[in-house]
Design the sequence.
């Protein structure tokens, strides 16, 4: 797809608006799922270096398409549900994995990857469509100890998705992020450098920032209305 001046202007304006709202110390990860690789190229030209995907095949396709078009300083994040049969290719193509939540996957992930554990902040949705993955908060610290034992300083911290079940309130989202911060603080007792709190998406990143997020993952705020999945 030809890179258009109008699209670059649009992305630049959206980025400027987001950057004006977030603290300088906070890391921005642009979620590019369902958007074309050309948008990643434009965002790279605009100074972005961290991009996230939910689906392994889309991550691979974009990396291949962008070879020679963007620099090796890009960091690719995988934030989707981990499937055992795809761990080998996740190891090959993702620099940071945000969504580790099971011991059966722990031993299969390359210990050179940077890892976050996903904490379930939306237990009311369990068993229903759209249920959130993740370790329940009460078990997160024990799981994190096992992750830290393998990954050491490559264990970076925690990730969470705020409650999104029907009827959810802003206060419930806030309490979800507070819970994630509390889990993070527990982990510091044995992994003092695991201080990443990956939390907040386009509809709730302001709440996440107020409750301690260090990394936010934004898609539509920057890229616009998301294209439907194939």
Sequence:
């Amino acid at each position: 797809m030809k890179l258009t001046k109008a699209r670059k202007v649009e992305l630049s304006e959206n980025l400027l608006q987001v950057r004006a709202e977030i603290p300088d110390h906070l890391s921005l990860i642009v979620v590019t799922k369902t958007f074309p690789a050309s948008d990643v190229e434009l965002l790279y030209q605009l100074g972005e270096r961290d991009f996230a995907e939910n689906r392994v095949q889309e991550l691979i396709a974009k990396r291949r398409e962008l070879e020679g078009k963007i620099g090796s300083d890009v960091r690719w994040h995988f934030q989707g549900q981990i499937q055992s049969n795809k761990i080998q290719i996740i190891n090959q193509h993702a620099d940071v994995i945000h969504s580790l939540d099971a011991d059966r996957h722990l031993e299969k992930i390359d210990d050179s990857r940077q890892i976050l554990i996903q904490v379930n902040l939306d237990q009311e949705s369990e068993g229903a469509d759209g249920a959130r993955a993740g370790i329940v908060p009460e078990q997160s610290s024990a799981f994190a100890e096992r992750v830290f034992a393998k990954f050491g300083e490559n264990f970076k911290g925690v990730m969470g998705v705020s409650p999104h079940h029907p009827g959810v309130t802003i206060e419930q989202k806030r309490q979800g992020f507070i819970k994630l911060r509390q889990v993070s603080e527990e982990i510091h007792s044995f992994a003092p450098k695991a201080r990443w709190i990956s939390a907040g998406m386009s509809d709730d990143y302001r709440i996440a920032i107020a409750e301690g997020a260090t990394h936010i993952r934004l898609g539509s705020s920057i890229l616009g209305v998301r294209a439907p999945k194939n």
Summary: Residues 56 and 191 are 29 Å apart (CA to CA).
